[in-house]
Amino acid sequence: MFKKVLIANRGEIALRVHRACQEMGIRTVAVHSTADATAMHVRLADESVCIGPPAARDSYLNVAAILSAASITGAEAIHPGYGFLSENASFAEMVEAHGFTFIGPTAEHIRMMGDKIAAKQAMASLNVPLVPGSDGELSSFEEAREVAERIKYPVLIKAAAGGGGRGMKVAHSADELEEAWRVARTEAKAAFGNDAVYMEKYLDRPRHIELQVLADTHGNVVHFGERDCSLQRRHQKLVEEAGSPALTAAERDALGAQVTQGLSKLGYRNAGTLEFLWQDGQFAFIEMNTRLQVEHPVTEMVCGIDLVKEQLRVAAGETLGYAQSDITFGGHAIECRITAEDPVTFAPSPGRVTTYHAPGGLGVRVDSALYSGYAVPPHYDSLVAKLVVHGKTRAEAIARMRRALEEMVVDGIRTTLPLHQRIMADPQFQSGDYTIHWLERFVGLRD
């Protein structure tokens, strides 16, 4: 096992990785920008190195500075967390080329799954079901029109190198297609430096279901069940559940068996998440994230397995040490993503936290790097805390989450705590009868 790991990230995920390392007797190195000099992950790590000014491109995306920090501190491995460089294949290659272990998949698989078209083609070769659409990149508007006529409107144009809802536009008719085509390509070029797009059938009432997987370097692949991530605002997840209120155990097991067999054939390693749309009992693959997910705690709560520790063990060359049949699912878990945003307008709200109180009690977990007096910087993602609860049943988990939300105090900045309270109190959410379009109607948004 590694003696020292550098954590190439910030905030709650850096703290999360540090805690797993600490429990395994692994020393940690925190890297930070000048804006994060007093951040909790920096204060708790065994060592810390400043890698640049506040802008992410000059610090957390500064590959040379991160590799230098690993070298001067004698780190053996680098954990990328999520976001920033976590799905950057070139970074993974450079980490390995400089003699460090990259705690994640191979650069080959990061590159494959980072290209949405290549990912779909790979899944098709493994007989994983796909959303109807184009066979690959659309070469012209004329081809887009032909595909739309074949799969029928409404259709969704998506950036091949996309993510987070950028470069994604819906066309409900032929009259809307040209505008959607133009805007999607423009956004894709601006966001990813690549204007390649493809097309999928736009499903009118799907749920967003994802499957957590883990593979070692000895050919063993397992899954840890599904998460329902259907509560989204502009393709950004706000609430996640494990398991899904809509799926049966038989559906989960069938999908899990198909996916793990396919990834074994690909020779995949470490953690990953496959994302699907689910409607009328049918799954359709949309993408794979080759990293740890923000919402991984809900899976840990129902499985009792620390996924970060498993990542570390796999990266160190150890076998999983258990089979699929050894993984059990108990109870229900819900995660609310608390962001530093206005709960109505969603305007960013950085600033100094004057009072912070985390809720507690049975079945309550808070992943956060906040503390009273901490200044939330304006330079990074607005996520400031993940409030996670577990209950024997979904009803108990909702009741526990409502209680925990009432207890949680974050003063000095605006947060989305009131929005989550509204969601948990809503009868339709409580019934479990919702789709990926429900939340935007709930908050009064229209695409």
From TrEMBL:
List its EC numbers.
6.3.4.14
Q: Which InterPro entries match?
A: ACC_Biotin_Carboxylase, Acetyl_CoA_COase_biotin_COase, ATP-grasp, ATP_grasp_subdomain_1, BC-like_N, Biotin_carboxylation_dom, Biotin_COase_C, CPAse_ATP-bd
SMART domains in the record, alphabetically? Biotin_carb_C
Provide one Gene Ontology biological process annotation: malonyl-CoA biosynthetic process
PROSITE patterns documented for this protein? ATP_GRASP, BC, CPSASE_1, CPSASE_2
Q: Which class of enzymes does this protein belong to? A: ligase
Question: Boundaries of each Biotin carboxylation domain copy?
Answer: 1-444
Would I find Protein transport among this entry's keywords?
Answer: no
Which positions fall inside the ATP-grasp domain? 120-316
Q: Carries keyword Ribosomal protein? A: no
- Job of this protein: This protein is a component of the acetyl coenzyme A carboxylase complex; first, biotin carboxylase catalyzes the carboxylation of the carrier protein and then the transcarboxylase transfers the carboxyl group to form malonyl-CoA.
Its protein name is Biotin carboxylase
The organism is Teichococcus oryzae
